[in-house]
């Protein structure tokens, strides 16, 4: 049986649940878990003052928030399975190293920021800076998978270095901004300045963009044998929604950003 944390107080400010992860709670007694400190409106309170604690401590944890003002869920998680039922706040899964985090709702800004490993799945929308660096940091996502079944805001995948980001819906401006490596897939419309200042990495667009930065060089419509390798991990998540492809199909390819001597690529799948 898993451990279930159910929010009981609908506060006006914000709750920060950093440190409340399955790997940290699995070996603790319920009484000890109840006294774990959480930050509520810049003050520390025991966990039990805002959440009921049910079930048995294990590497499976379920959190049920009352609103989208609960931040930091799954931040720094190393292993285990964490499920969130409902909308959440900011920094969900930030600096996550391993395990699986499933959000049955939408998330705020900095979802999966500086993610290093593991699997983060959001069944709703996310705000700005998904997979981007933490505030003041230089490294974005450095491994693992971020799968967003809804829409994403601005600066998704900023400074991404490794790993995979999948967005089924639309993205805002500056998707892949300053991207260094890794792969981003956008199933809907991509916002302005997609791929700006990218140095390496691949952005796959299911829909043709209205405009790309002028410093991305069009290299032609080409048959790309590498597309099979790129599509393999997408199929695991998108299943029947995976775009049709073949190594003989010609696809428009852009290379850059030439303004920073970049060698990244944007491939138009349609």
UniProtKB/TrEMBL annotation:
<dbReference type="GO" id="GO:0018493">
    <property type="term" value="F:formylmethanofuran dehydrogenase activity"/>
</dbReference>
<dbReference type="GO" id="GO:0015948">
    <property type="term" value="P:methanogenesis"/>
</dbReference>
<dbReference type="InterPro" id="IPR017550">
    <property type="entry name" value="Formylmethanofuran_DH_suC"/>
</dbReference>
<dbReference type="GO" id="GO:0046914">
    <property type="term" value="F:transition metal ion binding"/>
</dbReference>
<dbReference type="InterPro" id="IPR036485">
    <property type="entry name" value="Glu_synth_asu_C_sf"/>
</dbReference>
<protein>
    <submittedName>
        <fullName>Formylmethanofuran dehydrogenase subunit C</fullName>
    </submittedName>
</protein>
